Every structure is written in C-alpha cells, then in structure tokens.
Amino acid sequence: MTLKKLKRLIAWELEEYWSLPVLELVVFAAVIAALNLPVMITDFQERYLNLGFSMALIFVFLIFTTGSLFARSFAGSLSKGEMKTMFSYPLERTTVFISKFVSTFLMLSVIFAAVYSLNVPLLALDLSEPMFYVSLAAMVIQLFLLCTVATAISLVTRNEIVTFLAHVLLFFGIEVLAGSQKMLSSNGRYEILFDYFLRISHGISYSLNVSSEEAALAVIVPLLASALLFVGCLFYFTRVMEID
Amino acid sequence: MNEVDLKVPRGVTGFVGPNGAGKTTTINIILGLLKPDNGQALVFGLDSWSQSTEVRQKLGVLHEEAVFPKSFTGQRFLEHVAQFYDVQQPKQRAKELLSKVGLSEAGGKPIKGYSAGMLRRLGLAQALVGDPEFAVLDEPTANIDPSGRLAVLETVKQLNESRRTSFLVSSHILPELEKICSWLVIINKGKIVDQRSVEDLAAKYSANVYRIEVSDPAVFLDRISEAEFVEKAWVDGDRVYCKVKNPNSLYREMPRIVADLGLMLKSFQRLHSTLEEIYKEASVAG
C-alpha cells in the first residue's frame, strides 16, 4: 500500500462526500443537542452531567449517521458498481478499504466534533477541564465501534438499505435490551467512564461507583471488538471478497 | 469456465458469445475481481488474483455498467484516475482524453448531467488514462442510440490507429464489431469455441458460395448447374452465384467449363459471410 495513493483515494472519497448535505446533518444534530439542554446551571457537576445527557442524544443521532454513511461507502459502492470501477484501476484492495474507512470516519468525526463543540457555549463548559476530553474520548471509542460494525454489516449484506436498517436496529436493540448491564451498551460504557474519571479528577461520583477494572473494561471491550471487526473486514475485503 | 486460453493480438479483438457464455466472467477474472475456483488465471504472465494490481497497471477497462462519481466533473474525475496511474500531468492528460472522445465541452460539467452516450465515452477515456497497451471494453455500445454507438466505435478505431492501443471488445452487436475488429474470439458455455483473424474465420466458416462474372451468365448457368460438385446455382444481374459442395472441384473444373463454352471470365470471388453468420456457424461447430 502506497501512502501517496491512499491520500489520493481519501481525497477522492472526501470530495464525493462534499456533495452530501453535510451541513444540514450538522445543523440537524445541533438542533437535537440544543433541544436537550435544560435550564442553564452554573454548578460544575451539573454542567458535565448535562453533557452526558446531551451525548446520549447525540449517540442516537450517530447511530443513524454512521449507518447511512458506511452503508453508502461500502454496501452502496458494491451494489451500485462504484467499487467495481475503482477496482479497475491499479489500486490495492487494502488501500481502497482503508481510504473508505478513514474518509467516512473523518466525515463522521467532523460532524460529531461540530455538534460536540456546540456544547461548549451552550453548557458553558471549561475547555481546560479534563472531563471535557474524557467525555470526548469516551464518545470516539463508541464511534469507532459503530463504524466497524457498520462496515462489517455492509460487507455481509452488500445492500445499502439493509445495512442501514440492520445497523440501526442492532444498536437500538442493544441500547434498549442492555438495561442495567451498562457494559453492554454504548451509553452505559460512556457513563461508566464518565463516572470513573469524574471521581478520579474531582472526587465526585454521581451514582455508579465504578471500579477501575470496570472502567478499563469499558475502554477495552469496545476497542477490542472494533479492532477484531476491523481486521476481519480488512481480511475479507482484501483476500476473499469477489466482485461480480 | 474451463481451460480458457485467450489470445489477443495487437489491434481490435471482438469477444462474442451468447448471454451467459462467460464473457463478463472472463473479463472479471482478468481484472482479479473474481477468483478462479481451481488453478490460476495468468494475464501478461501474472496471476490475475494475487497480482491483480500489477495486471491492472497494464490494462484499461470499461465495464458494461460502469458507474462514475456523479458529483465530479468529467475533467476532475479523469484527473483523479490519472493520479492512480501516476500520470505526470493529470490535468493535461484529462483534457487531452476528453478531447479525443469528444467531450471537451462537457468536461467541466458534473457527470450526473451526462447522457448514456457521453458516459460511455467518458468510460472510454478513463480506460485510456494510464495509456495502456491493452484495453478491455465490455459492451461499450450498450444502452446508447445508433449515432452514439457509431461515435464510440469510431473513437475505438481511431485510438487503435493513432495510439496503437489494442482492444478486447465484448459485444452482442456483431455488425458493429465487424466494422472495427481484425481478430475474433468466440466463447460459449465457458469455453473458447474458436479464435483467429476475422478473415481466417470467414474462410473457415463461410458457406462455400462463389460469385462468378462471365460474358454470358445464362449459358454458363445452364452448364454449371449440371456439375456434380454444385449444390445450387443462380443468376443475379449479370453474375452467377454457385453454392458448391467441394470448392477444389470448382477451382479445377470452372476454368475448363468457361474455356469449353468460349466465354470470357471477368471475375471470380468467394463470398465471405457476415460476422453474424460466421458466429452462428462457429457456435454450431463448437
């Protein structure tokens, strides 16, 4: 895989995304985030608790966005023939896979970052506050899992609509069914990390009393699952997948 | 598909066969899009599956249902593709190719506004961006109107002549292939039925019909009709047509008959079948 070609492919993908209504998506997500805000509270702990509530809604929005963007990038390209055209050029499959994944992940990150940064003025958050970055990192970990799952479903179904529906139903199903098993749901893992680091940094715990093992698991489980899915998808894409 | 050995000499090669014969599958295997169930497929001596990137570096391809990024302009799209082939001046190459395929004016417009004919021509341009020695065109004239089809074929012919690019053209429209092909590969049920120059194929599969022009066609017809080696003879205008069982007998006997009758032989020609007729004959023989 050459870095030069990877950069060119990412540029190609991002240029294609430019035609999508990205700005509208950001505005939509921002409206959701703003609607969720309670009356402005000056207390530090309450402000960051509000950020947690806000993230829960943003996560729902991310489930839809990740599903649709990855379905378009992988399943859509395969079913519509764009991938076949791409594979007519002297590009390694690894380069194509990584460029698609990275560009879609970048796109999602831009949308997420735009919405996340809205919380700064709306919640009067302090940018020097470690919890701001903990919250951000915890969400990015969940986002990475969303992306790898969407990629895997895309490659299996090769159908844009089926991928989107399966992805949304899977994550909503998990969020709903997980209940008190916080480690199983993305929101639950986010809460675990938030609570643990809030206690570490400020000596405050709002309800969970998370142990360090639980906090470590909340990082390791999604990262490991994402890494395994990523490697599996990459292997399938580069070594097994046939395109008719 | 089984033991397919495709020979594609320089020039324009037609790749014909009925639906489901294996044309697109062959092309997909050549490009490394499909993996052979057993054994390996070699293209330029390279394994088409494990060395597909190297194979594709030497090839240009236009798929039957090629899909291009609709939001790009034709020019921008070709620039991107040129960079994949490490072309030194991608903008220049894109412009040059758009001009070659007659899309200079449309080059600055988004692809989503292109007609089917324009898309096929853009497809032809992207297949040639890397300046390949060899380009594979799968149904290059599919879904386009007659004038558009003619334009695509003319472009292929011109590119073959001006750039010395060889083409493998898969198509169902044989009269069109006839205009541009010098070599033909016939495939059926996953096997190559025959592959040779169009002239040789014509000689092999054409019906043994000869056109003879003599000074008195009616007298010549009376005599030749009685010959044992003649299956059927008829006159059309001032020429006599003979369908013979054994051409060698005709070659031996005909000058003698002409001389015996005191006639003058003006011309003598074996009639070659159309590509469509050759294809039918070859398919039956295969």
Q: Can you walk me through this structure?
A:
The complex is a heterodimer of chains A (about 240) and B (about 290). Chain A is built from nine helices and no strands. Chain A has helices spanning about 5-15, 20-35, 45-80, 80-85, 95-120, 130-155, 160-180, 185-200, 210-240. In chain A, helix 2 (about 20-35) packs antiparallel against helix 3, helix 5 (about 95-120) packs antiparallel against helix 6 and helix 6 (about 130-155) packs across helix 7. Chain B contains eleven helices and twelve strands. The longest helix of chain B has 18 residues, at about 145-165. In chain B, strand 2 and strand 3 (about 45) form a beta hairpin. Chain B has two domains: about 10-200, Rossmann fold (3-Layer(aba) Sandwich); about 210-270, Alpha-Beta Plaits (2-Layer Sandwich), CATH 3.30.70.100. The radius of gyration of chain B is 24 Å and the shape is elongated. In chain B, helix 9 (about 215-225) crosses helix 10 (about 245-260). Classes of the chains: A mainly alpha (about 240), B alpha/beta (about 290). The interface of A and B includes residues 12, 81, 84, 90 and 242 of A.
List descriptors:
heterodimer; A: 244 residues; mainly alpha; B: 286 residues; alpha/beta; Rossmann fold; Alpha-Beta Plaits; 2 domains; 6-stranded mixed β-sheet; 4-stranded antiparallel β-sheet; 11 helices; 12 strands; 41% helix
Note the topology.
The complex is a heterodimer of chains A (244) and B (286).
Chain A: H1 3-17, H2 22-35, H3 44-80, H4 82-86, H5 93-122, H6 130-157, H7 160-178, H8 186-202, H9 212-240
Helix pairs in contact in A: 1-5, 2-3, 2-5, 3-5, 3-6, 3-7, 3-8, 5-6, 6-7, 6-8, 6-9, 8-9
Chain B: E1 12-16, H1 23-30, E2 42-43, E3 46-47, H2 52-57, E4 59-62, H3 74-84, H4 90-100, H5 116-128, E5 134-138, H6 146-163, E6 166-170, H7 174-180, E7 183-188, E8 191-197, H8 198-205, E9 209-214, H9 217-225, E10 230-236, E11 239-244, H10 247-261, E12 265-270, H11 275-285
Parallel strand pairs in B: 1-6, 1-7, 4-5, 5-6
Antiparallel strand pairs in B: 2-3, 7-8, 9-11, 9-12, 10-11
